[in-house]
Amino acid sequence: GELLMEEHLSPRKLKALAGVDDLHQVKALEMKVDTRKTSLGNFGVHLPNLRELKLNNSLLMSVRNLGTSLSHLRVLWMACCGLSDLDGISSCSSLKELYIAYNNISELSQLTWLDHLEVLDLEGNNIEDIDQMQYLRLCCKLSHLTVEGNLVCLKPNTESAEEPGYNYRVEIKKLIPHLKYLDKIPISQT
């Protein structure tokens, strides 16, 4: 807490936060930040071997606040962070797993840049249009997707009335044919 009160995450603060003298040793980091008060700077340059970053329950105004030096990151948790868009996520180009549940995300086009993405958790966001799922088709390695708790599970878009025959699982399977699991259930099960 006290360490993060200064302007940005300096190497000195990162060493204290991670409890190490050599930042090259840090492969995983968990912290809670408020980017309204503290800039993260480009902290990724100091953590060249960081593979997992957990920022759950932080306050992030934008993914851009993470800087552009996290291209080696494999797993990123940003649940309950107040995110309304994913602008800047493309700088995390090696991501295999992205957990962004319980934010205010409604638009998924930025995810098309994540060629290695295998697991995506979008639970409890503001995805209201089934057409947003077409962007995930371009994530050709995506095998596990969670969308429960989004309006798109009830109806195809905001203009539609709830349709008795509408099944979001069937629709998503059509849009992302390579998907294996939807909401932790094999995609073949309706």
UniProtKB/TrEMBL annotation:
Does the record's keyword annotation contain Repeat? yes
**One Pfam family hit:** LRR_4
Tell me if 4Fe-4S is a UniProt keyword of this record. Answer: no
Mind listing the UniProt keywords for this protein, alphabetically? Leucine-rich repeat, Repeat
Under the heading InterPro entries, the entry gives:
Leu-rich_rpt, Leu-rich_rpt_4, LRR_dom_sf, LRRC56
Check the record and name the PANTHER family matching this protein.
LEUCINE-RICH REPEAT-CONTAINING PROTEIN 56
Protein name (database record): LRC56 protein
Organism of origin is Piprites chloris (Wing-barred manakin)
